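Tokens as discussed.
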């Protein structure tokens, strides 16, 4: 097999996986209260924050602990908002009130 054939096969596989992940997350119910952090691991329950003020870094540390990701590797992950196609920097502050309804994904 040639290298170009293998690259094309990999690209198609990645596109198929991405498409499956998006349909998997779109079937989740919409967030109604607070801030939710969802994971790719189906067995892992999402994190919920109802009130308070948190930085993205604090939320990522909590998410890393929930997924058993070591402190050495957790800086490779970040929070992503699928609705707005936005990655959040560690210094981003989230002020969560009763009116907040944000659903984020913890991704690499």
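Sequence:
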């Amino acid at each position: 097999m040639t290298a170009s054939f293998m690259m094309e096969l990999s690209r198609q596989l990645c596109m198929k996986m991405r498409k499956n992940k998006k349909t998997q997350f779109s079937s989740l119910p919409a967030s109604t209260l607070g801030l939710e952090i969802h994971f790719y691991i189906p067995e892992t329950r999402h994190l919920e924050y109802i009130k308070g003020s948190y930085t993205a870094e604090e939320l990522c540390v909590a998410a890393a602990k929930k997924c058993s990701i070591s402190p050495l590797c957790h800086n490779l992950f970040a929070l992503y908002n699928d609705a707005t196609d936005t990655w959040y920097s560690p210094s981003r502050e989230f002020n969560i009130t009763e009116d907040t309804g944000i659903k984020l994904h913890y991704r690499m």
